[in-house]
Write a structure and sequence with these properties.
By secondary structure, this protein is an alpha+beta fold. It contains 7 helices and 4 strands; from the N terminus they run βααβααβααβα. It has a single domain, classed as Alpha-Beta Plaits.
């Protein structure tokens, strides 16, 4: 069993897509073992997106991610890290295939609805970052 950190972004809340996306995660057979709604501050986001700090769109991401509440979740299942990434679809909205969350609902690369950890190492770091324990 593996654990991953999933976060539904502020566009998800604004567009009323929280239920739709949680439902897709559950229907795939994954278990949500912890969930909370929170409003993030700049400090935690700069840490979370530190791999993008030198990109021209960095401030855009921070502004977007502080624009409303997010839903943070710990999701568990077999190969769940890769499985959630497949359900999410590609980062860039035009590369995300229909049938994926981003492919079906995103028309913008920054406002792309969902975050999912990209490796076991980052999953542990991110779960600790947002839930305090792994
Ligand atoms: N992002 C963006 N423009 C880009 C690439 C990324 O605004 O060209 C944003 C987008 O919201 C993305 C987040 O930065 O989800 C984190 O980027 P990453 O490369 O980690 O993509 P992800 O893991 O979310 O697919
Ligand atoms: Mg990422």
């Amino acid at each position: 069993m593996e654990k991953t950190y999933v976060m539904l972004k502020p566009d998800c809340y604004k567009r009323g897509l929280i239920g739709e996306i949680i439902s897709r995660i559950e229907k795939k057979g994954y278990q949500i073992t912890n969930i909370k709604m929170l409003t993030l501050n700049e400090e935690i986001l700069k840490e979370h997106y530190s791999h993008l700090a030198d990109k021209p769109f960095f401030s855009e991401i921070i502004n977007f991610m502080t624009s409303g509440p997010v839903v943070g979740m710990i999701v568990e299942g077999e190969s769940v890290i890769e499985g959630i990434r497949i359900l999410m679809g590609a980062t860039k909205w035009h590369d995300a295939l229909p049938g994926t969350i981003r492919g079906d609902f995103a028309n913008n690369t920054t406002e792309n609805l969902i975050h999912g950890s990209d490796s076991r190492e980052t999953a542990e770091i991110e779960i600790k970052r947002f839930f305090g324990e792994f």
